[in-house]
From TrEMBL:
Protein name: GIY-YIG nuclease family protein
Entries under InterPro entries matching the protein: SeqA_DNA-bd_C_sf (IPR036835)
SUPFAM superfamilies: Replication modulator SeqA, C-terminal DNA-binding domain
Domain of life: Archaea
Species for this entry: Halorubrum ezzemoulense
Length: 231
């Protein structure tokens, strides 16, 4: 599995309508093993959120950054354990979501399966220059641009645009209709549609989102090519 910074609720209680949560925030290279370790002492644990580091951040750097954010919202702190009151945790998580990529267990499973395949390309540390989708060639200058342009090219070739909104993660939407773009962290309008796409993704995730859209509309993945240059 991928490296993640996690937030695990290890205990909670309610007193006079006030909800208090003890949350452990740390880093892990195997979240399943980490959860097993915590569950030995407490069966009531709950994995609340996971974040993967940005391409230019190490796991330790990302963890320190999340701790710094947590200190702004937590009522108390003891090493890696933070005490949050009521909605303070949600505010903390939403802030971190703007800085790091929030992922679910199924995202990590899919990424792990992909990384085990010899023919999977790694686009980390590169910048896209040209993408070719369904026979059309487009110049692009960023991964957010590649994602938006690539998806727009596919949607121009189909009638059922709403089907794309079925592609999402466990805790976040990837594509939403106009009016719901506030649900996304870094929304960008898809040209010639009333849809918005989330662009808060790594290079590899941008490519994966395009491939998901291609497969959703039953096109062949060979109809998609991307050309990059080293940063």
């Amino acid at each position: 599995m991928s490296d993640v910074v996690y937030a695990i609720r290890i205990s909670h209680l309610e007193y006079s309508g006030l909800k208090i949560m003890d949350i452990k925030i740390g880093k892990s290279t195997d979240i399943d093993n980490t959860l097993r370790q915590y569950s030995r002492g407490n069966r009531d644990i709950e994995l609340l959120d996971m974040w993967t580091p940005n391409p230019d951040k190490t796991l330790s750097t990302a963890e320190r950054g999340v701790h710094a954010v947590a200190e702004r919202y937590a009522y108390d702190k003891q090493s890696e354990k933070f005490v949050f009151l009521q909605g303070a945790y949600q505010e903390f998580a939403e802030t971190v979501n703007m800085l790091l990529q929030n992922v679910g267990r199924e995202d990590l499973t899919a990424e792990s399966a992909s990384s085990e395949s010899d023919d999977v390309d790694d686009y980390t540390g590169t910048t896209p220059s040209v993408i070719k989708v369904l026979g059309e060639t487009h110049d692009v200058d960023s991964w957010a641009d590649a994602l938006t342009v690539g998806v727009a090219a596919i949607l121009r070739d189909v009638d059922d645009h709403e089907r794309i909104t079925e592609i999402d993660g466990r805790t976040r939407s990837y594509f939403v209709e106009e009016g719901r773009q506030s649900d996304l962290f870094k929304p960008r309008r898809i040209p010639d549609t009333n849809l918005y796409v989330e662009t808060n993704f790594s290079a590899n995730d941008c490519v994966r989102r395009i491939e998901q859209v291609i497969q959703r509309y039953e096109y062949d993945l060979t109809s998609f090519e991307i050309f990059t240059q080293e940063n």
